Amino acid sequence: MPVIDKTISAGNRYSVLLLMLLISAGAIAIPEMSRWMHLTQARTAAADWLVHDFLVEDFEDWWYNQQVNGRRISDQYHPFEKDRLGVDYEHYYSEFGAVRLARVPSGSFLVSVAQPSRDAKPTSAPDGLQIPDTRADILDLRPWEKQFGPSASFLWVVKPLSPEEAAILEGVVGLNTEWRKNNPDKAARLPKLLDENWSADKRWLALGAERDRAALQLKALADGLGIEAKSETTTPALYRILERRLTSSQFKVPVIDVEMPTQMALWSLAAVVLVIAMLFQVTLEQITAKDLQAREEEWLLLDASGGLSVLLARSWLVFLMLAPVAVPLSIIGILLQRVGVGDVNGRRAATVVLAALVLAAIGAYSAFKSSRRVLSANKRLQRTPASGRR
């Protein structure tokens, strides 16, 4: 057997290995992109729920203050009056974390999720005792922000009521109050939500319906991913369960046979693919025209001579050339999704993109050199009569 056959055999193994690694990278990147797409949907639904939960609470406070101060309950509702949202307003949700809600100049809401801030002083009880801060940190919380435009229901709620709507609202509230006075036993059995006068206000119902709609969207997404939650699980806690599922994937990297988080697995694959691609290039550069005539081992990439064999050889070559470029680009694609969902800041993203582009550029150069060698060798062999080969 000629010595060159060992080189041909090595090149063949490298080409097969590159194809396998490209398939492995696809098996990692495609589900990972799907997970970040689902997380984008989950964060949109969570932001929707949080905004309307803030609004429902604020509307109830507004309604209570209207009654205490003797003002008409049919007046125009102004959300977050006085100190409610003059500055960022923070609320803590158990098993979820702290949420800050702010208004931006465009009129949208900015939802910021993070650990609870510790700059506020402990609350003082009437007897002078300091009430400790019982808000717990969420160990694996991933901070994020999302700008959320006001819903159609919100834009309707903040409009003044017409005289007819105001009269109907005041009449219904008056009838409810009289009914409770005359039927105390039945009133005691009412659901808690219907025990308050504001439950007769369509504005409160509209905000609550928007909050429920967002909760159902998040629940449907969790069900679609096979996440089963207990009946008492709150919407914020359900989001946290869903986020943990979507961001904790592991994958065993071929060749090195080590299981690691998906992002690290893709970087490892990108490095391994680049090394194999360069070895493939060096192997091809060792094959001279004289060696091609001396060899005994055939290789489809070099010997394809027409019809289906050429189609298979060219398809194989395309995948080989894509491998060292596609893996770094998949990292960039996933990173852009993470930036869009608010999981990565711009500065860190720029550094990662630059590193991935360097890997892709080196891989593209190596792939170009290898493809030229393969195509050149194939053409040379096609011009050589079959009788001139051993």
Could you characterize what this model shows?
This protein is α+β, with helices and mostly antiparallel strands and 390 residues long. It is 61% helix and 9% strand. The protein has helices spanning 4-68, 152-157, 163-182, 184-188, 202-224, 235-246, 262-285, 289-294, 300-303, 308-341, 346-383; strands spanning 89-93, 97-103, 109-114, 123-124, 130-131, 144-148, 250-253, 258-261. The strands form three sheets. It has a four-stranded antiparallel β-sheet with strand order 1-2-3-6, covered by helices on one side. A two-stranded antiparallel sheet has the order 4-5. Helix 1 (4-68) packs antiparallel against helix 5 (202-224), helix 1 runs antiparallel to helix 6 (235-246) and helix 7 (262-285) packs parallel to helix 11 (346-383). The longest helix has 65 residues, at 4-68. It is elongated. The model has no long low-confidence stretch (mean pLDDT 84).
